UniProtKB/TrEMBL annotation:
The keyword Signal applies. It comes from Marinomonas arctica. Residues 36-261 form the Glycoside-hydrolase family GH114 TIM-barrel domain. This is Endo alpha-1,4 polygalactosaminidase. Residues 1-24 form the signal peptide.
Length: 268
């Protein structure tokens, strides 16, 4: 009996060592519905908010900042653009001219990217690796709904779905949570691939219910509103916040510059 038992234990230990990386790879950050958050992409990050999540810039945020926030009990989501070229980023020269499309409306130093390009995808993998190396808990890739825009390229909705799922798969393989940014028309189809959503002005543009599938799946919707009336008129803000609470969204009223000039929360 003993000669069978001990080899069996040794065999089980070997199996556990073999499969351990697979289990670890599934252990990425999944925020709960109703998670509190702060979003700041410009200026010196205000570290004083008592929230569960900080959403900050991948390139501009130091490892020390990320570690300080985590040491205070916060999770850190790192922002980068996955659908546009930004000429000031340190990896801007990694893109080929042929993969750069039209200028983004209102953002003269950004151009749309050809999301079908293998070179573009290689850059995004490096950005995701940078997020993992810096210790981010998750990522917020922006501009992942460009199929609806005149980018200068002729890709379609299925190309966008493929690209977004590629980003999600790569993030998860690195142990990173990932949020779906501003893609209401594909939110239902992508709700199983992403761990949360980050939306802008979904109440202003009547897009909030498009994200209900994420809430039903236990995944939070982190929403930001920019209308000045929500700052100046408390009754208007309260009315919007009541809608947000009914939908179980995590809504903030912020400056569009996301520089912490002010911050109003719909937390109950």
């Amino acid at each position: 009996m003993r000669t069978v038992f001990f080899p069996f234990i040794a065999f089980c230990l070997l199996l556990s060592l073999f499969f351990a990386p697979l289990y670890a790879a599934n252990d990425w950050y999944r925020p709960p519905v109703g998670a509190t958050w702060h979003w700041q992409l410009d200026g010196e990050v205000n570290e004083s908010y008592d929230v569960a999540i900080y959403d900050i810039d991948l390139f501009d945020s130091s490892v020390e900042l990320i570690q300080r926030l985590q040491a205070s009990g916060k999770k850190v989501i790192c922002y980068f653009s996955a659908g546009s070229y930004e000429d000031w980023r340190p990896d801007a020269t990694d893109f080929s001219e042929q993969d750069l499309g039209k200028t983004l409306k209102g953002w003269d130093d950004e151009r749309w990217l050809d999301i079908r390009s293998s070179q573009v995808r290689d850059v995004m993998v490096r950005r995701l690796n940078l997020a993992a190396e810096k210790g981010c808990d998750g990522v917020e890739p922006d501009n992942v709904d460009s199929y609806r825009t005149n980018t200068g390229f002729s890709f379609r909705a299925n190309d966008q779905l493929d690209y977004n799922r590629f980003l999600a798969t790569q993030a998860h393989q690195l142990g990173l949570g990932i949020g779906l940014k501003n893609n209401p028309d594909q939110a239902r189809l992508l709700s199983s691939d992403f761990d949360f959503a980050v939306t802008e002005q979904c109440f202003e543009y009547s897009e909030c219910r498009s994200y209900s599938g994420l809430i039903q799946a236990g995944k939070p919707v982190l929403n930001a509103e920019y209308r000045r009336i929500y700052v100046d008129d408390e009754s208007e803000r309260n009315s919007m916040c009541k809608q947000s609470q009914r939908l179980a969204f995590s809504t903030l009223v912020l400056p569009k510059t996301l520089d912490d000039q002010f911050r109003l929360s719909c937390e109950p």
